[in-house]
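Deliverable D5.2: sample structural annotation.
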Amino acid sequence: MDRPNYITPAGYAALRAEYDRLLATERPALVETIAWAAGNGDRSENGDYIYGRKRLREIDRRLGFLSRRMKAAKVVDPARQDDRTRIFFGATATIADEDDRHRTLTLVGDDEADAGAGKVGWNAPLARALRGAAVGDVRRVALPAGEKEYEVMSIDYPPVAADTA
């Protein structure tokens, strides 16, 4: 991986929770089902066995993917950002387009991006255009529907927790 996999502490915890759930709960239950199905005789027409093996391969692939992503992860706590006047990783920004439509989004790691929830991946075109912008800056973004200009209206970061200060 040539660039760091930035992720928030909450995003890393979600990856870890999925990994632990798959490894400790789903995979052992599936192995047990496959062993039971294998004991039923002919495996060529045994749906439980065939589906179980297929699902086991899917889980193993997902576990490998999650393991690689967690190993490459660089956990960054947005609350510890020193320069809160510019948009950096973890910032929540309100932007306005040419038609004065406001949109609030948070720059998060690519593994935790969710456009419906306003979480934009760090390497998305919009996030790359907004990096380093301050309130009042206008940034041009090349989107699939064409170029658009956005003005930064506000920038917020999570508050610093009292026990981490």
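Annotation notes: The chain has three helices and seven strands. The first strand starts at residue 5 and ends at 7.
The annotation will be released with the project's public dataset once the embargo ends.
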